[in-house]
């Protein structure tokens, strides 16, 4: 399937071969057909987005291009020449892949990472001055002019390490750059810097494949988008011919109208009452209530205090002022353990760092908040723990071989379901979800949304922090907006729109 580029549109007479052509790529594993005849073309100076749910075949396609997988059928050409098999062949042909998990070595210098295995040398001795000069040139092209090549890589913040990975591709004279979820661990200002680098590389003639779950990134950066579903390409067009609704529908094979399964519900009594809550130095003053059966969204820019608010309520951060009442009873949470005892649960925005024990089983993760309830005579009942995990896995539709599967081997969406299974295992009164769909695919998002509605329908008070405005507007009964540590307004669902929320979130005042 051929994607017409903007460059082609400007130069219709050009007959130059595409930089990359993948034709009829098939790849199977025991019991699974990962790729079903995938075809695409990428031209120089073009950013192509590849989108699709987890399991759609994106990673298998990238690994086939990089040489990590050998296709069962199909052809790959670079500049009209067949690509030889093997990882080194792809690298030699100018293909560089930047995975979500960086492939850099923290204990080496920046220059050593850039030229790993091919440092300039003479008579067996590394030519440090030459290596540093070459490193500075590559670093300058990604905006890291001030990073010393001799600096230990691990001393750089994550956002700069990500750019070092891009500089590594430049230093290898890559002509095709594949970026797999490159913004997953970055803050908003770092993402803008990465966008600027991608645009400069495109202007320099590099062909870029950009894989992202975030559709706003796709529309911001890409010249075209290829949609994959069930191992096949199901759509490929210039971005000017895509709408968000069409992209989502192509990815999940259902209409956008069913994407946010919000429904009107009857609310019960006030379950959570927060008054003048503060936690130095960020959270200054927060007052709000949430009723049983309600879904309340919390909006705000980075640093506004959204996460700090939830963590202070839960007991993960100390409250320096204010009161919290659950079901009409004043509580003081000095720790998450006390928060759970008082009927609160909190799911972290960083599920890998704070939310899960990745090398433990699903069973162990689900049971973490319920060990006391599962114990008898000082010993945790293995049978009760197994049943708790199995019930949670069934309730949330966790796709795994069994509850004994290691959690780190699950997809992002299934990891999030494990977190929800643990959160609801204690039958909480208040469920606080911090960025519940971050880093998961569109199909998994719709499942998480459906579970949120079920939790609210069952009588829980649900609070959701999200940086994705469509998500907040689509799922919330009302939206609270935070600005510089305080809740500055409350907006009813029927009056909430992007412009109003952004105005309050960026200025602390209405229009």
Can you characterise this structure?
With 511 residues, this protein is α/β, with parallel strands linked by helices. The protein has 3 domains: 6-94 and 175-254, Rossmann fold, CATH 3.40.50; 259-343 and 428-511, Rossmann fold, CATH 3.40.50.300; 362-425, no CATH class. Helices cover 34% and strands 25% of the residues. It contains 19 helices and 24 strands. It has a 6-stranded mixed beta sheet, sandwiched between helices. A 6-stranded mixed beta sheet has the order 18-21-22-15-23-24, sandwiched between helices. Helix 5 (128-140) crosses helix 6 and helix 16 (412-424) packs parallel to helix 17 (442-457). The radius of gyration is 25 Å and the shape is globular. Mean pLDDT is 87; it is low at 1-14. Residues 20-255, 265-509 form the ABC transporter domain.
In CATH terms, what is the architecture of the largest domain?
Answer: 3-Layer(aba) Sandwich
CATH topology of the largest domain: Rossmann fold
- Integer count of domains: 3
CATH superfamily of the largest domain: P-loop containing nucleotide triphosphate hydrolases
Helix content: 25-40%
| CA-atom Rg in angstroms | 25 Å
Q: Distance N terminus to C terminus?
A: 47 Å
Query: CATH top level of the largest domain?
Result: Alpha Beta
| Low-pLDDT windows of residues | 1-14
Number of strands: 24
Biggest sheet character: 6 strands, mixed
The portion of residues forming beta strands comes to 25-35%
Secondary-structure-derived class: alpha/beta
What is the general shape? globular
Count of alpha and pi helical runs: 19
Rounded average pLDDT: 87
Strand order of the largest sheet: 6-9-10-3-11-12
């Amino acid at each position: 399937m051929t994607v017409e580029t903007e460059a082609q549109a400007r130069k219709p007479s050009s007959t130059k071969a595409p930089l990359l052509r993948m034709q009829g790529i098939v790849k199977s594993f025991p019991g699974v057909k990962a790729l079903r005849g995938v075809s695409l073309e990428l031209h120089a100076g073009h950013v192509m987005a590849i989108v699709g749910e987890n399991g759609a075949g994106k990673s298998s396609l990238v690994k086939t291009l990089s040489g990590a997988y050998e296709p069962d059928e199909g052809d790959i050409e670079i500049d009209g020449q067949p690509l030889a098999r093997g990882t080194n062949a792809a690298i030699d042909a100018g293909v560089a892949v930047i995975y979500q998990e960086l492939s850099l070595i923290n204990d080496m210098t920046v220059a050593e990472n850039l030229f790993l295995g091919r440092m300039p040398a003479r008579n067996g001795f590394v030519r440090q001055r030459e290596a540093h000069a070459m490193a500075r040139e590559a670093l300058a092209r990604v905006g890291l002019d001030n990073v010393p090549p001799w600096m230990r890589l691990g001393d750089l913040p994550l956002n700069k390490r990500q750019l070092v990975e891009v500089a590594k591709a430049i230093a290898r004279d890559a002509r095709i750059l594949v970026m797999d979820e490159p913004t997953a661990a970055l803050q908003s200002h770092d993402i803008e810097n990465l966008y600027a680098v991608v645009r400069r590389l495109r202007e320099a003639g590099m062909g870029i494949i950009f894989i992202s779950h975030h559709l706003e990134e796709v529309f911001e950066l890409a010249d075209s988008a290829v949609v994959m579903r069930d191992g096949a390409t199901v759509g490929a067009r210039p971005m000017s011919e895509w709408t968000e609704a069409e992209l989502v529908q192509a990815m999940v094979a259902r209409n956008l109208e069913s994407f946010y399964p919000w429904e009107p519900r009857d609310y019960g009594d006030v379950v959570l009452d927060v008054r003048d809550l503060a936690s130095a130095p960020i959270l200054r003053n927060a007052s709000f209530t949430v009723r049983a059966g309600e879904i309340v969204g919390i909006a705000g820019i980075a640093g506004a205090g959204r996460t700090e608010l939830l963590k202070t309520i839960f007991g993960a951060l100390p409250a320096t002022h204010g009161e919290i009442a659950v079901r009409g009873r004043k509580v003081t949470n000095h720790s998450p353990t006390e928060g759970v005892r008082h009927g609160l649960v909190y799911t972290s925005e960083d599920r890998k760092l704070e939310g899960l024990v990745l090398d433990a089983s699903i069973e162990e993760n689900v049971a973490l908040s319920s060990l006391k309830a599962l114990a008898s005579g000082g010993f945790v009942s293995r049978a009760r723990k197994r049943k708790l995990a199995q019930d949670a896995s069934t309730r949330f539709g966790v796709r795994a071989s069994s509850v004994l599967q290691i959690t780190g081997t699950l997809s992002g969406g299934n990891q999030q379901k494990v977190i929800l299974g643990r959160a609801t295992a204690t039958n909480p009164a208040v469920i606080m979800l911090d960025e519940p769909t971050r880093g998961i695919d569109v199909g998994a998002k719709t499942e998480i949304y459906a579970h949120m509605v079920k939790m609210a329908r069952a009588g829980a008070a649900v609070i959701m922090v999200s940086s994705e405005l469509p998500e907040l507007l689509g799922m919330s009964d009302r939206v609270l907006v935070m600005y510089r540590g305080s809740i500055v307004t409350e907006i009813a669902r029927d009056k909430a729109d992007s412009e109003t929320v952004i105005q309050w979130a960026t200025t602390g005042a209405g229009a």
